[in-house]
Specification:
The protein is of the alpha/beta class and 491 residues long. The chain has 3 domains: 3-81, Udp-n-acetylmuramoylalanyl-d-glutamate--2,6- Diaminopimelate Ligase, Chain: A, domain 1, CATH 3.40.1390.10; 100-321, 3-Layer(aba) Sandwich (UDP-N-acetylmuramoyl-L-alanine:D-glutamate ligase); 332-486, Protein-Tyrosine Phosphatase, Chain A. It contains 15 helices and 23 strands. It has an 11-stranded mixed sheet, with helices on both faces. It has a 6-stranded mixed sheet with strand order 16-17-21-18-19-20, sandwiched between helices. A 4-stranded parallel sheet has the order 1-2-3-4. The longest helix has 16 residues, at 294-309. It is globular, with a radius of gyration of 24 Å. Bound molecules: ligand UAG, adenosine-5'-triphosphate, 2,6-diaminopimelic acid and magnesium ion. The site of adenosine-5'-triphosphate has 24 residues, from α4, α9 and α11. Magnesium ion binds next to α4.
Length: 491
């Protein structure tokens, strides 16, 4: 690829540099190699424009930046929205990409949906992959990327890599951060899904409307013209999403009790799953979902919607739904204690998700539901007391503990959570101690829920140069605590 191709797409004359060959793209000046195009963005922490001279010294031949940025010694690909322009330019370079791509947005359920969509496609015989919080999962392996939505260069190069490996179908998570920073786009996306919207990330977004608007970019800009919007219909924001999708000319495919694409008629919990009745395309279906909890029904049917929207055949899709495997760290049963009490690990880290995880377990509890959780540091502080309230409202006993305190004082975060949790809650610093206390407390007919970290492998403490990730896996720790208790002879 030559600079002229990029420049002409942006209506810019590349002058003498027109024939220079582009070797790659970078958004971090430390990763620039000779012949690269550097994207200089104003960020939350620093201004990428300050690194333009260093990027050019490392061999950058063109800079995508605002018109007012100073660029000397390389082609200035100027645009008022440099992140978007960079995504578009990079997408010309990173070719080919998988032919079938879908994206999922929403506060909760993105990871679950991309995982389930991948599983459904695979069971329909496609070579499918997913990209999101759990990393990049292909038919052969799973590799973590660290962020839910990686940066645009990693994202597009992953897509090209997957395509070269023969992957034809990809489902990816579009977080609100990713959408507002144009981190995941530039390629053809045939369908987008909306799961739900509730409080999260109000440290980054000004208010709920701003948070919602960031998510809606998926439907107003990212999904292809004429594409499909798969929308969970039973959320309070759903009607607005349907309106926005229609205005853009997308085809809405609604799912849920109020859904028309998949109309959920009944959901009856059974010991290890639930019986579902629904109507799709005028035909009534009755299937067994081997997962518990209303929220997993929402995610499974939304994922079915994405598979249908991209051409999979209905009977095969719903047969696949009846064979879905659990998603790592989402209502994952870690252990059954010697007492007989099962311990579940779930990734609920918002007030709404905690309520959903608790509601999922409630029908299975004969005794008490004991919930262990904390709130993350350097994240939305306003969600802490509501998380305490949600946990206390649905549980019989609550242990408030630590979850990635990052740069904050762990005890202060716990007190903010305790403010909402009331007198059902005990405050125990040290997540292992809290898990031990909960498991020690549990009797045969109780259930323990450990929420907030799901699949995570570490406890993040400190920030900046002092940041450390201490190995910690809720599932392993629950098993170790249960084993220690049973070998100690208690209960
Ligand atoms: C708040 C936030 O989202 N920040 C992300 C964002 O930063 P930013 O664009 O504001 O970047 P910045 O650090 O101010 O730097 C500005 C620019 O200068 C460049 N730079 C910077 C330093 C340098 O030496 N040289 C250089 O060129 C940077 O590459 C960047 O382009 O872009 C960076 C590069 O892609 C990300 O690493 C960074 O994620 C930080 C680490 C983060 O913690 N993000 C979390 C909150 C996040 O995004 N989470 C969501 C999940 C949320 C959910 O689903 O619940 C996610 O999608 O992962
Ligand atoms: N459809 C849903 N409705 C309500 N709560 C849900 C739903 N799906 C998942 N949850 C809750 O949210 C938690 C996280 O689920 P998941 O990882 O799928 O969401 P996510 O949107 O990817 O989260 P993140 O923003 O951290 O990437 C689950 O463990 C569960 O407690
Ligand atoms: N994607 C979410 C994950 C939160 C997980 C929880 N364990 C925490 O650290 O708050 C975030 O970055 O806000
Ligand atoms: Mg996720």
């Amino acid at each position: 690829m030559r600079i002229a191709e990029l420049a002409s797409q942006m209506g810019i004359d590349a002058g003498e540099a027109a024939d220079t060959r582009v070797t790659g793209f970078a958004i971090d000046h430390r990763k620039v190699a000779p012949g690269n195009v550097f994207g200089a963005f104003q960020g939350a922490a620093v201004n990428g424009e300050d690194y333009i001279p260093a990027a050019i010294a490392s061999g950058a031949i063109a800079i995508v930046a605002r018109p007012e940025a100073k660029v000397e010694g390389a082609v200035h690909l100027a645009d008022d929205n440099p992140r978007r322009a960079f995504a578009r330019a990079a997408s010309l370079f990173f070719q080919p990409t998988p032919e079938t791509v879908v994206a999922v947005t929403g506060t909760n359920g993105k990871t679950s949906c991309v995982e389930m969509t991948r599983q459904i496609w695979r069971m329909c015989g496609e070579r499918a992959a997913s990209i999101g919080t759990l990393g990049v999962t292909t038919p052969d392996e799973s590799v973590s990327t660290g962020l839910t939505t990686p940066d645009i260069v990693t994202f597009l190069s992953n897509m090209t890599g997957l395509s070269r490996e023969g992957v034809t179908h990809v489902a990816y998570e579009a977080s609100s951060h990713g959408l507002s920073q144009y981190r995941n786009e530039g390629l053809s996306v045939q369908a987008g899904a909306f799961t739900n919207l509730s409080r999260d990330h109000l440290d980054y977004h000004k208010d709920m409307d701003d948070y919602f608007a960031a998510k809606m970019r998926l439907f107003t800009e990212v999904v292809d013209d004429g594409g499909t919007a798969v929308i969970w219909a039973d959320d309070e924001w759903s009607a607005k999403v349907i309106e926005i999708a229609k205005e853009r000319g997308l085809t809405p495919f609604t799912v849920g009790e109020q859904g028309k694409g998949i109309n959920l008629i009944a959901r009856n919990p059974s010991p290890l799953g639930q019986e579902l009745k629904f109507v799709h395309g005028g035909k009534a279906y009755a299937i067994r979902l081997p997962l518990i909890g209303a929220y997993q029904v929402a995610n499974a049917l939304t994922s079915a919607g994405l598979a249908l929207a991209t051409g999979a055949e209905a009977d095969r899709v719903f047969d696949a739904v009846s064979r879905l495997q659990p998603v790592r760290g989402r209502l994952e049963r870690a252990v059954i204690c010697a007492s007989g009490a099962p311990v579940y690990v779930d990734y609920a880290h918002t007030p709404d998700a905690l309520a959903a995880a608790i509601a999922a377990l409630r029908p299975h509890v004969n005794g008490r539901l004991i919930t262990v959780f904390g709130a993350g540091g350097d994240r939305d502080t306003g969600k802490r007391a509501p998380m305490g309230e949600a946990a206390a409202a649905g549980s019989d006993l609550v242990f408030v503990t630590d979850d990635n305190p990052r740069g904050e004082d762990a005890a202060s975060i716990r007190s903010e959570v305790m403010r909402g949790a009331g007198d059902k809650a005990r405050n125990i610093g040290g997540r292992r101690d809290a898990i031990t206390a909960a498991i020690t407390e549990a009797n045969s007919d109780d259930i323990v829920l450990i929420a907030g970290k799901g699949h995570e492998q570490g406890q993040i403490v400190g920030s900046g140069e002092n940041m450390k990730v201490l190995p910690f896996d809720d599932v392993d720790v629950a098993r170790e605590c249960a084993a220690a208790l049973s070998s100690g002879g208690a209960r």
